[in-house]
What we know:
Helix content is 72%, strand content 0%. The chain is mainly alpha-helical. The protein has two domains: 1-37, no CATH class; 40-238, no CATH class. Helix 3 packs across helix 10 (198-223).
Amino acid sequence: MRKIFFIGMFLISGYASGQLNLSKVLQDAKKKLQTTGTPLSAGDVADGLREALVKGTGKSSDVLSQVDGYFKNPEIKIPFPPDVKKVEDKLRQIGLGDQVDKFILTLNRGAEDAAKEAKPIFINAIKQMTIEDAWAILKGQPDAATQYLKTTTSSQLSDKFKPVIKNSLDKVNATKYYTDIITTYNKIPFVDKVNPDLNEYATQRAMQGLFTMIAIEERKIRDNPLERTTDLLKKVFGAQK
């Protein structure tokens, strides 16, 4: 009844002014009615963004930590280090392609093993998000939350992730395979010796894969109402449509 009365008052005022445009009056009334609802508070926005990021990072970590989470995902599969691509090419030329393929598999297995350790690291970082950050993210690009997380936490995540990656690579023998490959390559006559940092490379590529998947999950939450599984997510992201 209050809504009907509200619209009626708009119509009456339009007639009284002698300048009634029925379509415009109805549109204005609709806007007024929409804005009479409970507006988003700063706390709603911050909590909603944190919830969305926890959901996105958690799902991404869970997916990537499964067997073949990295290895069979062409978007994020970790290849032989491109800085030493000549090593891979040379070893394949001399019949050691199987050894290279085995190393690439174990490299991705290491990232998959480490991915499950990323969840608490991301969650801790998400808790540090300010209300001002949240408002900017909500109004930003489809991957604004992911980019915020990447910008503000990459250094810290790298420091915490490196030992996890190293342990994972050691556990699946990727480090050994890599050492064997580089040793074999360096024994080839007339080649320039190489000794790149495998752990640094694997850490950066594993993190890159996580951020890629988080961005995908963020976009789903922004664009697809079915991905908003709680009332808070529906309220915050639905208000932006």
